[in-house]
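ARCHIVE ENTRY
Sequence with per-residue C-alpha coordinates
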Amino acid sequence: MTKRSASIENGGKVATSGHKVSQNGTLQDGDDKKVGLGKKVTLLRGISIIIGTIIGAGIFISPKGILKHSGSVGMSLIVWIACGVLSLFGALSYAELGTCIKKSGGHYTYILEAFGPQMAFVRLWADLIAIRPAALAVISLAFGQYILEPLFMPCSVPPLAVKLATAISITSVMYLNSMSVTWTARIQIFLTFSKLLAIGIIIVPGMYQLFKGETKNFENAFDLSKVQLSGMPLAFYSGMYAYAGWFYLNFVIEEVDNPERNVPLAICISMAIVTCCYVLTNVAYYTVMSAEALLASEAVAVTFAEKLLGKFSIAVPVFVALSCYGSMNGGTFALSRMFYVASREGHLPEVLSMIHVHRNTPMAAVFILYPMTMLQLFVGDIYSLLNFMSFLRWLFIGVVVLGLLYLRYTKPDLPRPFKVPLFIPVVFCLTCFFMVFLSLYSDPVNTGIGFAISLTGIPAYYIFIHFKHRPKWLQKALDSFNRSLQIILLVVPAEK
Protein backbone atom coordinates (compact mmCIF):
# COMPACT_ATOMS: atom_id res chain seq x y z
CA MET A 1 0.00 0.00 0.00
CA THR A 2 1.42 3.41 -0.95
CA LYS A 3 2.00 6.20 1.53
CA ARG A 4 -0.84 8.23 -0.03
CA SER A 5 -3.35 5.44 0.33
CA ALA A 6 -2.13 4.16 3.67
CA SER A 7 -4.84 4.46 6.30
CA ILE A 8 -5.48 3.79 9.94
CA GLU A 9 -8.60 2.99 11.84
CA ASN A 10 -9.39 4.99 14.92
CA GLY A 11 -12.53 3.96 16.76
CA GLY A 12 -14.18 2.99 13.49
CA LYS A 13 -13.11 6.26 11.80
CA VAL A 14 -10.65 6.30 8.95
CA ALA A 15 -7.80 8.77 8.52
CA THR A 16 -5.31 9.09 5.69
CA SER A 17 -1.64 9.89 6.05
CA GLY A 18 -0.96 13.61 6.13
CA HIS A 19 -3.97 14.18 8.41
CA LYS A 20 -4.54 13.89 12.12
CA VAL A 21 -7.48 12.56 14.11
CA SER A 22 -9.00 14.96 16.60
CA GLN A 23 -10.17 13.93 20.08
CA ASN A 24 -13.74 13.45 18.94
CA GLY A 25 -12.68 10.96 16.29
CA THR A 26 -12.94 13.33 13.31
CA LEU A 27 -10.19 14.18 10.93
CA GLN A 28 -8.32 17.37 10.16
CA ASP A 29 -5.64 18.37 7.69
CA GLY A 30 -2.17 18.81 9.10
CA ASP A 31 -2.62 22.58 8.94
CA ASP A 32 -5.82 22.35 11.07
CA LYS A 33 -8.02 22.98 8.05
CA LYS A 34 -11.47 21.59 8.79
CA VAL A 35 -12.94 18.80 6.69
CA GLY A 36 -16.53 19.79 5.99
CA LEU A 37 -18.99 21.58 3.73
CA GLY A 38 -18.27 25.29 3.57
CA LYS A 39 -20.63 28.20 2.87
CA LYS A 40 -19.86 28.42 -0.85
CA VAL A 41 -23.36 29.13 -2.17
CA THR A 42 -23.52 32.87 -2.80
CA LEU A 43 -26.58 34.80 -3.99
CA LEU A 44 -25.62 34.32 -7.66
CA ARG A 45 -24.98 30.62 -7.16
CA GLY A 46 -28.28 30.27 -5.31
CA ILE A 47 -30.12 31.91 -8.21
CA SER A 48 -28.34 29.61 -10.66
CA ILE A 49 -29.36 26.52 -8.65
CA ILE A 50 -33.05 27.52 -8.68
CA ILE A 51 -33.25 28.72 -12.29
CA GLY A 52 -30.97 25.96 -13.51
CA THR A 53 -33.14 23.21 -12.04
CA ILE A 54 -36.55 24.74 -12.86
CA ILE A 55 -35.83 25.38 -16.54
CA GLY A 56 -35.34 21.94 -18.06
CA ALA A 57 -36.40 20.64 -21.44
CA GLY A 58 -40.14 21.33 -21.09
CA ILE A 59 -40.33 24.98 -22.16
CA PHE A 60 -38.31 24.17 -25.30
CA ILE A 61 -40.08 20.97 -26.26
CA SER A 62 -43.74 20.79 -25.37
CA PRO A 63 -45.73 23.55 -23.64
CA LYS A 64 -48.79 22.27 -25.44
CA GLY A 65 -50.26 20.50 -22.41
CA ILE A 66 -51.35 23.82 -20.93
CA LEU A 67 -52.78 25.04 -24.24
CA LYS A 68 -54.63 21.76 -24.79
CA HIS A 69 -56.36 21.80 -21.42
CA SER A 70 -56.93 25.58 -21.10
CA GLY A 71 -58.69 25.79 -24.48
CA SER A 72 -57.38 29.12 -25.81
CA VAL A 73 -54.21 31.14 -26.31
CA GLY A 74 -55.19 33.83 -23.82
CA MET A 75 -56.21 31.37 -21.12
CA SER A 76 -52.97 29.42 -21.58
CA LEU A 77 -50.93 32.58 -20.90
CA ILE A 78 -53.04 33.31 -17.81
CA VAL A 79 -52.35 29.76 -16.57
CA TRP A 80 -48.59 30.28 -17.09
CA ILE A 81 -48.73 33.49 -15.02
CA ALA A 82 -50.96 31.97 -12.33
CA CYS A 83 -48.71 28.92 -11.97
CA GLY A 84 -45.71 31.24 -11.62
CA VAL A 85 -47.48 33.13 -8.82
CA LEU A 86 -48.54 29.91 -7.06
CA SER A 87 -44.99 28.55 -7.34
CA LEU A 88 -43.73 31.82 -5.84
CA PHE A 89 -46.13 31.26 -2.92
CA GLY A 90 -44.63 27.81 -2.38
CA ALA A 91 -41.08 29.12 -2.70
CA LEU A 92 -41.74 31.93 -0.19
CA SER A 93 -43.18 29.37 2.26
CA TYR A 94 -40.00 27.34 1.89
CA ALA A 95 -37.96 30.52 2.37
CA GLU A 96 -39.56 30.97 5.79
CA LEU A 97 -38.81 27.36 6.68
CA GLY A 98 -35.23 27.69 5.42
CA THR A 99 -34.49 30.76 7.49
CA CYS A 100 -35.98 29.42 10.74
CA ILE A 101 -34.76 25.80 10.36
CA LYS A 102 -31.19 26.28 9.20
CA LYS A 103 -30.56 22.67 8.26
CA SER A 104 -30.05 21.30 4.77
CA GLY A 105 -32.26 18.52 3.44
CA GLY A 106 -35.32 20.32 2.09
CA HIS A 107 -38.58 18.36 2.28
CA TYR A 108 -37.06 15.65 4.46
CA THR A 109 -35.77 18.04 7.12
CA TYR A 110 -38.99 20.06 7.38
CA ILE A 111 -41.21 16.97 7.66
CA LEU A 112 -38.80 15.60 10.28
CA GLU A 113 -38.99 18.81 12.34
CA ALA A 114 -42.78 19.15 12.09
CA PHE A 115 -44.14 15.58 12.05
CA GLY A 116 -41.36 13.31 13.26
CA PRO A 117 -38.99 10.66 11.90
CA GLN A 118 -41.44 8.09 10.54
CA MET A 119 -43.13 10.39 8.02
CA ALA A 120 -39.78 11.90 7.08
CA PHE A 121 -38.36 8.42 6.43
CA VAL A 122 -41.33 7.47 4.22
CA ARG A 123 -40.62 10.56 2.10
CA LEU A 124 -36.92 9.71 2.00
CA TRP A 125 -37.63 6.08 1.07
CA ALA A 126 -39.87 7.03 -1.86
CA ASP A 127 -37.24 9.50 -3.08
CA LEU A 128 -34.42 6.99 -2.82
CA ILE A 129 -35.95 3.89 -4.41
CA ALA A 130 -38.08 5.45 -7.13
CA ILE A 131 -38.80 9.17 -7.53
CA ARG A 132 -35.32 10.66 -7.82
CA PRO A 133 -33.67 7.90 -9.89
CA ALA A 134 -36.58 7.95 -12.35
CA ALA A 135 -36.64 11.75 -12.58
CA LEU A 136 -32.86 11.88 -13.12
CA ALA A 137 -33.03 9.13 -15.75
CA VAL A 138 -35.82 10.93 -17.66
CA ILE A 139 -34.06 14.31 -17.84
CA SER A 140 -30.82 12.50 -18.74
CA LEU A 141 -32.58 10.66 -21.58
CA ALA A 142 -33.74 14.02 -22.91
CA PHE A 143 -30.11 15.19 -22.80
CA GLY A 144 -28.94 12.08 -24.69
CA GLN A 145 -31.63 12.51 -27.33
CA TYR A 146 -31.00 16.18 -28.04
CA ILE A 147 -27.19 16.20 -27.80
CA LEU A 148 -27.03 13.49 -30.49
CA GLU A 149 -29.79 14.84 -32.72
CA PRO A 150 -27.57 17.25 -34.75
CA LEU A 151 -25.14 14.37 -35.45
CA PHE A 152 -27.81 12.06 -36.87
CA MET A 153 -29.98 14.58 -38.77
CA PRO A 154 -32.15 13.94 -40.73
CA CYS A 155 -32.25 10.34 -39.42
CA SER A 156 -33.56 9.41 -35.99
CA VAL A 157 -31.10 8.72 -33.20
CA PRO A 158 -30.64 4.99 -32.38
CA PRO A 159 -32.11 4.18 -28.94
CA LEU A 160 -28.92 2.44 -27.79
CA ALA A 161 -26.85 5.52 -28.68
CA VAL A 162 -29.25 7.66 -26.63
CA LYS A 163 -28.87 5.37 -23.61
CA LEU A 164 -25.07 5.32 -23.89
CA ALA A 165 -24.94 9.13 -24.11
CA THR A 166 -27.33 9.26 -21.17
CA ALA A 167 -25.15 6.94 -19.09
CA ILE A 168 -22.08 9.08 -19.85
CA SER A 169 -23.93 12.26 -18.89
CA ILE A 170 -25.13 10.79 -15.56
CA THR A 171 -21.61 9.59 -14.77
CA SER A 172 -20.08 12.98 -15.59
CA VAL A 173 -22.59 14.83 -13.39
CA MET A 174 -21.89 12.50 -10.47
CA TYR A 175 -18.13 12.86 -10.97
CA LEU A 176 -18.33 16.66 -11.13
CA ASN A 177 -20.42 16.88 -7.95
CA SER A 178 -18.06 14.56 -6.10
CA MET A 179 -14.91 16.45 -7.11
CA SER A 180 -15.62 20.11 -6.28
CA VAL A 181 -18.44 22.20 -4.86
CA THR A 182 -16.88 25.34 -6.38
CA TRP A 183 -16.65 23.93 -9.90
CA THR A 184 -20.11 22.39 -9.66
CA ALA A 185 -21.47 25.85 -8.79
CA ARG A 186 -19.45 27.58 -11.54
CA ILE A 187 -20.63 25.17 -14.21
CA GLN A 188 -24.20 25.56 -12.94
CA ILE A 189 -23.90 29.34 -13.39
CA PHE A 190 -22.58 28.81 -16.95
CA LEU A 191 -25.41 26.39 -17.79
CA THR A 192 -28.01 28.76 -16.32
CA PHE A 193 -26.76 31.59 -18.53
CA SER A 194 -26.83 29.16 -21.49
CA LYS A 195 -30.49 28.44 -20.76
CA LEU A 196 -31.32 32.12 -20.53
CA LEU A 197 -29.43 32.73 -23.78
CA ALA A 198 -31.44 29.98 -25.48
CA ILE A 199 -34.68 31.49 -24.21
CA GLY A 200 -33.47 34.92 -25.35
CA ILE A 201 -32.87 33.51 -28.85
CA ILE A 202 -36.57 32.59 -28.89
CA ILE A 203 -37.96 35.67 -27.14
CA VAL A 204 -36.09 38.42 -29.06
CA PRO A 205 -37.12 37.31 -32.60
CA GLY A 206 -40.61 36.58 -31.28
CA MET A 207 -40.97 40.08 -29.83
CA TYR A 208 -39.62 41.52 -33.09
CA GLN A 209 -42.34 39.66 -34.97
CA LEU A 210 -44.93 40.93 -32.49
CA PHE A 211 -43.86 44.56 -32.92
CA LYS A 212 -43.94 44.08 -36.69
CA GLY A 213 -47.62 43.33 -36.35
CA GLU A 214 -47.66 39.51 -36.40
CA THR A 215 -50.67 39.32 -34.10
CA LYS A 216 -53.10 37.18 -36.08
CA ASN A 217 -52.67 34.24 -33.72
CA PHE A 218 -53.73 36.46 -30.81
CA GLU A 219 -57.05 37.37 -32.39
CA ASN A 220 -59.90 36.03 -30.28
CA ALA A 221 -57.26 34.90 -27.78
CA PHE A 222 -59.88 34.72 -25.03
CA ASP A 223 -62.48 32.85 -27.05
CA LEU A 224 -64.15 30.77 -24.37
CA SER A 225 -66.01 28.42 -26.73
CA LYS A 226 -63.38 25.70 -26.32
CA VAL A 227 -62.66 26.34 -22.65
CA GLN A 228 -63.89 23.59 -20.35
CA LEU A 229 -63.72 23.97 -16.58
CA SER A 230 -62.94 20.26 -16.25
CA GLY A 231 -59.71 20.82 -18.20
CA MET A 232 -58.41 23.78 -16.18
CA PRO A 233 -57.11 21.71 -13.23
CA LEU A 234 -55.10 19.59 -15.69
CA ALA A 235 -53.71 22.77 -17.25
CA PHE A 236 -52.61 23.98 -13.81
CA TYR A 237 -51.14 20.55 -13.09
CA SER A 238 -48.97 20.80 -16.22
CA GLY A 239 -47.99 24.36 -15.37
CA MET A 240 -46.98 23.60 -11.79
CA TYR A 241 -44.87 20.70 -13.06
CA ALA A 242 -43.07 23.07 -15.46
CA TYR A 243 -42.18 25.36 -12.52
CA ALA A 244 -41.08 22.50 -10.22
CA GLY A 245 -37.58 22.95 -8.80
CA TRP A 246 -37.97 26.17 -6.82
CA PHE A 247 -37.37 24.20 -3.60
CA TYR A 248 -33.84 22.98 -4.38
CA LEU A 249 -32.00 25.82 -2.64
CA ASN A 250 -33.54 24.63 0.64
CA PHE A 251 -31.66 21.35 0.25
CA VAL A 252 -28.33 23.19 0.71
CA ILE A 253 -29.23 25.82 3.35
CA GLU A 254 -26.17 25.01 5.47
CA GLU A 255 -23.92 25.94 2.54
CA VAL A 256 -25.66 29.25 1.74
CA ASP A 257 -23.76 32.36 2.71
CA ASN A 258 -25.97 34.65 4.86
CA PRO A 259 -29.14 32.54 4.36
CA GLU A 260 -31.45 35.04 6.13
CA ARG A 261 -30.82 37.47 3.28
CA ASN A 262 -29.80 35.33 0.33
CA VAL A 263 -32.45 32.59 0.45
CA PRO A 264 -35.55 34.85 0.17
CA LEU A 265 -33.73 37.14 -2.27
CA ALA A 266 -32.58 34.28 -4.52
CA ILE A 267 -36.08 32.78 -4.53
CA CYS A 268 -37.84 36.06 -5.43
CA ILE A 269 -35.34 36.96 -8.16
CA SER A 270 -35.37 33.43 -9.63
CA MET A 271 -39.15 33.09 -9.71
CA ALA A 272 -39.55 36.53 -11.31
CA ILE A 273 -37.01 35.64 -14.02
CA VAL A 274 -38.49 32.18 -14.69
CA THR A 275 -42.10 33.45 -14.85
CA CYS A 276 -41.17 36.26 -17.25
CA CYS A 277 -39.15 33.87 -19.42
CA TYR A 278 -41.93 31.29 -19.57
CA VAL A 279 -44.66 33.79 -20.44
CA LEU A 280 -42.59 35.69 -23.04
CA THR A 281 -41.39 32.43 -24.61
CA ASN A 282 -44.99 31.31 -25.09
CA VAL A 283 -45.91 34.71 -26.54
CA ALA A 284 -42.97 34.32 -28.96
CA TYR A 285 -44.22 30.88 -30.03
CA TYR A 286 -47.65 32.30 -30.85
CA THR A 287 -46.19 35.01 -33.11
CA VAL A 288 -45.02 32.24 -35.46
CA MET A 289 -47.39 29.34 -34.78
CA SER A 290 -51.12 29.14 -34.45
CA ALA A 291 -52.65 27.23 -31.57
CA GLU A 292 -53.31 24.30 -33.96
CA ALA A 293 -49.69 24.26 -35.18
CA LEU A 294 -48.36 24.38 -31.63
CA LEU A 295 -50.55 21.45 -30.60
CA ALA A 296 -49.33 19.48 -33.63
CA SER A 297 -45.63 20.09 -32.89
CA GLU A 298 -43.58 17.50 -30.99
CA ALA A 299 -40.76 19.97 -30.23
CA VAL A 300 -42.12 23.50 -30.18
CA ALA A 301 -38.79 25.33 -29.94
CA VAL A 302 -37.38 23.38 -32.90
CA THR A 303 -40.47 24.12 -35.00
CA PHE A 304 -40.23 27.81 -34.02
CA ALA A 305 -36.53 27.94 -34.98
CA GLU A 306 -37.09 26.19 -38.32
CA LYS A 307 -39.73 28.75 -39.30
CA LEU A 308 -37.89 31.84 -38.10
CA LEU A 309 -34.15 31.17 -37.78
CA GLY A 310 -33.40 28.95 -40.78
CA LYS A 311 -30.13 27.00 -40.53
CA PHE A 312 -29.52 28.30 -37.01
CA SER A 313 -32.30 25.96 -35.88
CA ILE A 314 -29.71 23.17 -35.70
CA ALA A 315 -28.35 24.86 -32.53
CA VAL A 316 -31.67 24.52 -30.68
CA PRO A 317 -31.23 20.81 -29.79
CA VAL A 318 -27.79 21.65 -28.35
CA PHE A 319 -29.30 24.36 -26.13
CA VAL A 320 -32.03 21.94 -25.03
CA ALA A 321 -29.33 19.41 -24.12
CA LEU A 322 -27.40 22.03 -22.10
CA SER A 323 -30.63 22.93 -20.34
CA CYS A 324 -31.19 19.28 -19.40
CA TYR A 325 -27.60 18.97 -18.18
CA GLY A 326 -28.09 22.02 -15.94
CA SER A 327 -31.18 20.42 -14.40
CA MET A 328 -29.26 17.19 -13.81
CA ASN A 329 -26.32 19.04 -12.24
CA GLY A 330 -28.40 21.27 -9.96
CA GLY A 331 -30.67 18.41 -8.90
CA THR A 332 -27.75 16.11 -8.07
CA PHE A 333 -26.02 18.85 -6.07
CA ALA A 334 -29.15 19.51 -3.99
CA LEU A 335 -30.35 15.94 -3.52
CA SER A 336 -26.98 14.69 -2.30
CA ARG A 337 -27.38 17.08 0.65
CA MET A 338 -30.73 15.52 1.54
CA PHE A 339 -29.13 12.07 1.74
CA TYR A 340 -26.20 13.60 3.65
CA VAL A 341 -28.57 15.05 6.28
CA ALA A 342 -30.68 11.87 6.44
CA SER A 343 -27.51 9.90 7.18
CA ARG A 344 -26.57 12.42 9.87
CA GLU A 345 -30.01 11.82 11.44
CA GLY A 346 -29.44 8.05 11.44
CA HIS A 347 -31.90 7.24 8.63
CA LEU A 348 -29.23 6.13 6.14
CA PRO A 349 -25.81 4.44 6.51
CA GLU A 350 -23.28 6.58 8.37
CA VAL A 351 -20.84 6.74 5.46
CA LEU A 352 -23.28 8.97 3.53
CA SER A 353 -22.74 11.79 6.05
CA MET A 354 -18.98 11.77 5.58
CA ILE A 355 -16.85 14.23 3.61
CA HIS A 356 -13.97 13.58 1.24
CA VAL A 357 -10.74 14.53 3.00
CA HIS A 358 -9.35 16.52 0.06
CA ARG A 359 -12.40 17.59 -1.95
CA ASN A 360 -14.72 18.59 0.92
CA THR A 361 -17.66 17.02 -0.92
CA PRO A 362 -20.16 14.42 0.38
CA MET A 363 -18.91 11.86 -2.15
CA ALA A 364 -20.89 8.86 -0.90
CA ALA A 365 -24.12 10.89 -0.77
CA VAL A 366 -23.54 12.09 -4.35
CA PHE A 367 -23.19 8.56 -5.72
CA ILE A 368 -26.05 6.94 -3.81
CA LEU A 369 -28.51 7.50 -6.68
CA TYR A 370 -26.10 6.21 -9.33
CA PRO A 371 -26.87 2.44 -9.17
CA MET A 372 -30.68 2.85 -9.10
CA THR A 373 -30.60 5.46 -11.88
CA MET A 374 -28.52 3.22 -14.14
CA LEU A 375 -30.74 0.24 -13.36
CA GLN A 376 -33.89 2.15 -14.27
CA LEU A 377 -32.22 3.63 -17.35
CA PHE A 378 -31.47 0.24 -18.91
CA VAL A 379 -34.12 -2.11 -17.52
CA GLY A 380 -36.89 -0.03 -15.95
CA ASP A 381 -40.10 1.51 -17.28
CA ILE A 382 -39.19 5.02 -16.19
CA TYR A 383 -42.18 6.89 -17.55
CA SER A 384 -44.67 4.57 -15.83
CA LEU A 385 -42.78 5.02 -12.59
CA LEU A 386 -42.96 8.79 -12.95
CA ASN A 387 -46.72 8.50 -13.46
CA PHE A 388 -46.93 6.48 -10.25
CA MET A 389 -44.93 9.08 -8.35
CA SER A 390 -46.02 12.44 -9.78
CA PHE A 391 -48.77 12.93 -7.21
CA LEU A 392 -46.43 12.04 -4.31
CA ARG A 393 -44.35 15.12 -5.12
CA TRP A 394 -47.31 17.41 -4.47
CA LEU A 395 -48.59 15.37 -1.53
CA PHE A 396 -45.32 15.75 0.38
CA ILE A 397 -44.78 19.38 -0.65
CA GLY A 398 -48.29 20.06 0.66
CA VAL A 399 -47.38 18.23 3.88
CA VAL A 400 -44.24 20.40 4.21
CA VAL A 401 -46.20 23.65 3.90
CA LEU A 402 -48.84 22.25 6.27
CA GLY A 403 -45.90 21.69 8.62
CA LEU A 404 -45.08 25.40 8.38
CA LEU A 405 -48.60 26.21 9.61
CA TYR A 406 -48.30 23.54 12.31
CA LEU A 407 -44.96 24.94 13.54
CA ARG A 408 -46.45 28.44 13.75
CA TYR A 409 -49.03 27.00 16.12
CA THR A 410 -46.77 24.68 18.16
CA LYS A 411 -43.61 26.82 18.15
CA PRO A 412 -44.73 30.44 17.96
CA ASP A 413 -41.49 31.66 19.56
CA LEU A 414 -39.23 30.02 16.96
CA PRO A 415 -37.05 32.79 15.44
CA ARG A 416 -38.37 33.63 11.97
CA PRO A 417 -36.08 36.15 10.23
CA PHE A 418 -38.35 35.90 7.16
CA LYS A 419 -42.08 35.43 7.71
CA VAL A 420 -44.71 35.28 4.98
CA PRO A 421 -48.35 36.38 5.36
CA LEU A 422 -50.57 33.51 6.46
CA PHE A 423 -52.68 33.44 3.28
CA ILE A 424 -49.60 32.50 1.16
CA PRO A 425 -48.95 29.05 2.72
CA VAL A 426 -52.70 28.42 3.09
CA VAL A 427 -53.41 29.04 -0.63
CA PHE A 428 -50.41 27.00 -1.72
CA CYS A 429 -51.20 24.12 0.64
CA LEU A 430 -54.78 23.93 -0.67
CA THR A 431 -53.42 23.98 -4.25
CA CYS A 432 -51.12 21.04 -3.54
CA PHE A 433 -53.83 18.92 -1.97
CA PHE A 434 -56.20 19.79 -4.82
CA MET A 435 -53.64 18.45 -7.31
CA VAL A 436 -53.29 15.30 -5.22
CA PHE A 437 -57.08 14.86 -5.28
CA LEU A 438 -57.04 15.46 -9.05
CA SER A 439 -54.48 12.67 -9.49
CA LEU A 440 -56.58 10.29 -7.41
CA TYR A 441 -59.67 11.16 -9.44
CA SER A 442 -58.14 11.10 -12.93
CA ASP A 443 -55.81 8.10 -12.58
CA PRO A 444 -56.70 6.07 -9.48
CA VAL A 445 -54.81 2.91 -10.56
CA ASN A 446 -51.37 4.46 -11.15
CA THR A 447 -51.81 6.81 -8.22
CA GLY A 448 -52.70 3.88 -5.99
CA ILE A 449 -49.62 1.95 -7.13
CA GLY A 450 -47.42 4.96 -6.38
CA PHE A 451 -49.00 5.33 -2.96
CA ALA A 452 -48.44 1.62 -2.27
CA ILE A 453 -44.76 1.92 -3.26
CA SER A 454 -44.32 4.81 -0.83
CA LEU A 455 -46.05 2.88 1.97
CA THR A 456 -43.35 0.22 1.79
CA GLY A 457 -41.30 2.83 3.64
CA ILE A 458 -43.27 2.09 6.84
CA PRO A 459 -42.07 -1.51 7.31
CA ALA A 460 -38.61 -0.41 6.11
CA TYR A 461 -38.57 2.21 8.88
CA TYR A 462 -39.34 -0.33 11.58
CA ILE A 463 -36.90 -2.92 10.21
CA PHE A 464 -33.91 -0.63 9.60
CA ILE A 465 -34.45 2.31 11.98
CA HIS A 466 -36.88 1.69 14.82
CA PHE A 467 -35.64 -1.70 16.01
CA LYS A 468 -32.15 -1.09 17.37
CA HIS A 469 -31.29 -4.68 18.31
CA ARG A 470 -30.00 -6.14 15.08
CA PRO A 471 -28.36 -9.60 14.93
CA LYS A 472 -24.65 -9.34 15.73
CA TRP A 473 -23.63 -10.82 12.37
CA LEU A 474 -25.70 -8.20 10.52
CA GLN A 475 -24.34 -5.31 12.59
CA LYS A 476 -20.78 -6.59 12.08
CA ALA A 477 -21.34 -6.84 8.32
CA LEU A 478 -22.76 -3.29 8.20
CA ASP A 479 -19.83 -1.91 10.20
CA SER A 480 -17.34 -3.68 7.95
CA PHE A 481 -19.08 -2.37 4.83
CA ASN A 482 -19.09 1.15 6.28
CA ARG A 483 -15.35 1.06 7.07
CA SER A 484 -14.52 -0.38 3.64
CA LEU A 485 -16.38 2.42 1.89
CA GLN A 486 -14.59 4.99 4.05
CA ILE A 487 -11.23 3.62 2.95
CA ILE A 488 -12.20 3.34 -0.72
CA LEU A 489 -13.82 6.79 -0.96
CA LEU A 490 -11.40 8.58 1.44
CA VAL A 491 -14.28 10.06 3.44
CA VAL A 492 -14.46 10.98 7.13
CA PRO A 493 -17.02 12.53 9.50
CA ALA A 494 -17.34 16.28 8.99
CA GLU A 495 -15.97 18.69 11.57
CA LYS A 496 -18.71 20.35 13.60
User: Anything to note?
Assistant: Residues 1-32 have pLDDT under 50 and may be disordered.
